Amino acid sequence: MRKPRDLNFMARPAPAPEPEKAATPTTAARPTSATAARPAPGRAAAMEDESETKRVIRRPGQPLKIIAAPKTPKSPGADRSNRGRLTIANATSGEDERTRSVASFRRRQQRMSGHRHVEQKEKLSRDVVIPETITIQELANRMSERAVDVIRLLMKQGQIHKITDVIDSDTAQLIAEELGHTVRRVAESDVEEGLTSDEPDLEEDLDPRPPVVTIMGHVDHGKTSLLDAIRKANVVEGEAGGITQHIGAYQVAAPSGDLVTFIDTPGHAAFTSMRARGAKVTDIVVIVVAADDGVMPQTIEAIQHAKAANVPMIIAVNKIDKPDAKPERVRTELLQHDIQVESMGGETLEFEVSAKTGQGLPDLLEGIQIQAEIMNLRANEKRDGEGTVIEAQLDRGRGPVATVLVQRGTLFTGDIVVAGAEWGKVRALIDDQGEHVQYAGPSVPVEVLGFNGTPDAGDRVIVVPSEARAREVTEYRARLKRERAAARSGGANRSLVDMMREMKEGAGRKELPVVIKGDVQGSVEAISGALEKLGNDEVGARILLAGVGGITESDITLAQASKAFVIGFNVRAHKEAREAAERNGVDIRYYNIIYDLVDDIKATLSGMLPPTLREERLGEAVIQEVFEVSKVGKVAGCRVMDGIVERGAHVRLIRDSVVIHEGKLKTLKRFKDDAKEVTSGQECGMAFENFENMRAGDTIECYRVEEIRRTL
């Protein structure tokens, strides 16, 4: 029998270990099994190759196989050179497990604690400017702090706020000082400081400027016609009804060649504020009085405006070409208002003129020039421009357009200007001839394009250095404007007692709600003022909205919600607005003459007035006997003592001189027939509406009630 072959390890002989390495714990002290220490014959034995770390295994009848030995993970603190031989026991031992490093442990602790180590930045203390009111976001921006930190501090004080809420200056100061900042309190109105300079200009900077002349007077006395004759233009045809309803500003050349700026104001009673504005911006006032009509109410009003503005007056007696002209009558009537003309020994210049023939116009212009020379009108052209808005309108193609009279300095294209609660960058300047100009000096009227909204007529126009400054000023003014409007209307500050009292007082007053849209600001002002004066304690007009521009869909929506009607003065409704008005049944009324508008509203308000009731006595009857009639009820048999008794007339039943019933006469019979009326001395039967408690001896008084329509 053949003896089986021994299985031997086919590997290179391992070098003998060094003495110090043989005694290391990794080799000598490590426990091994007998099978691993002495491989028995017929079993595979494993040996480690020190350089390759591989096992070479050979089985009977199989080729040579090389298998890589598993690597042992390195344990902290163990030296690679001290590992010794890798055996199966070493490979399967669990003592040399891999552990975390100290840095890894530290990172884990930082994650568990929820924060990382951040270097503390140096706290900066800032000088914070705090106005009377400020939003939380703006306060945080000025302190360079997070808004959430400000809200957190307010919550600690028991106040819950949003980032857009407004807080007062005291609260803002507490927050800023809590965060370590220095506070400087300012008033909200301080934003307007420095807008205008009241310092007088240097004498060497002053140059002569054209005089600003305002034409004033009663309606239809020829103011615009006189200005047309001076300008040699025809403006009257462009005005509806031949009356001026806008303030116009023009420059003309006098016979001497010097320029004169004219401002034409309306004469109608509704345009009082426009005349007052004209007087405030003017140097000289020319009061036009018709020679055939004399001094009229608006003439007196114009004189009062001129006196209030403390400007010199020149009297122009117009229409002297008419046969019934009486200039002497005009001079005499002016004496009643403390105006004494030169021809009567006074100091006020007067000229007899005719706008139709041109008579006296050169003398009038010469007189204006003489008056201007006496006044020595001069201005500084080198400073920033300042002026006044004479008129403003919303042009559909050009946007907001303001007619501005420059009074100081020079206004250039590209300047950033502020006018009331509106601001803008001047896109274009257009003179009175319709030509584009690059700049406008003192006493020059120009149309200014570029405002972001329509300013109010009479607002001061000021050039500012930057857009930020313009926004700051206009935001303050807009907020002030809203607060004033809220205060006038009662606003949200009204108490419940105030509202109940107003409801009680106004319970019997009927109001006509209207929405007003006009072409220019002055016309809207005039219409609003005229409508507010209409009415009495029983009826009146309530203006829901008064604005400049065409009628929009939002105007129709407002009118529908308030059951109002819309007034369009020299404007028309947009297509969408017209369709909405037809769909919702909103009435739109168009006007181009203020007389017609005021008369229509006055007639409408008069129709809302309850009529006056007037009694007319018809006659008197005495009940002689009371009968019970089937299907009719009680019928009084009466004798007419005085006058007549009519069926359907009002009656009073009087018993012992006391009125016990008032009503209508339902039935009137003469014998068995129905009668329309019964005269004195005749007998009749009467039945009353809703009353049957009559007795013999009662007196019946018959009368007719007549309704008389009232007017404002």
From TrEMBL:
Subcellular location: Cytoplasm
Compositional bias annotation for Basic residues: 105-115
InterPro entries: EF-G-like_DII, EFTu-like_2, IF2_II, IF2_N, P-loop_NTPase, Small_GTP-bd, T_Tr_GTP-bd_dom, TF_IF2_bacterial-like
Residues the entry annotates as binding GTP: 217-224, 264-268, 318-321
Keyword Transit peptide: no
Major location (coarse): cytoplasm
SUPFAM superfamilies cross-referenced by the UniProt entry: Initiation factor IF2/eIF5b, domain 3, P-loop containing nucleoside triphosphate hydrolases, Translation proteins
Keyword terms, alphabetized: Cytoplasm, GTP-binding, Initiation factor, Nucleotide-binding, Protein biosynthesis
Cross-referenced Pfam families: EF-G_D2, GTP_EFTU, GTP_EFTU_D2, IF-2, IF2_N
Compositionally skewed regions (Acidic residues) per UniProt: 189-206
CDD domains xref list: IF2_eIF5B, IF2_mtIF2_II, mtIF2_IVc
Low complexity compositional bias, start-end: 22-45
Region (Disordered) residue spans: 1-120, 187-209
Molecular function (Gene Ontology), one example: translation initiation factor activity
Domain Tr-type G: 208-378
One term under GO cellular component: cytosol
General function of this protein: One of the essential components for the initiation of protein synthesis. Protects formylmethionyl-tRNA from spontaneous hydrolysis and promotes its binding to the 30S ribosomal subunits. Also involved in the hydrolysis of GTP during the formation of the 70S ribosomal complex.
Alphabetical list of PANTHER family matching this protein: TR-TYPE G DOMAIN-CONTAINING PROTEIN, TRANSLATION INITIATION FACTOR IF-2-RELATED
Protein family: Belongs to the TRAFAC class translation factor GTPase superfamily. Classic translation factor GTPase family. IF-2 subfamily.
HAMAP family (UniProt xref): IF_2_B
Name of the molecule in the record: Translation initiation factor IF-2
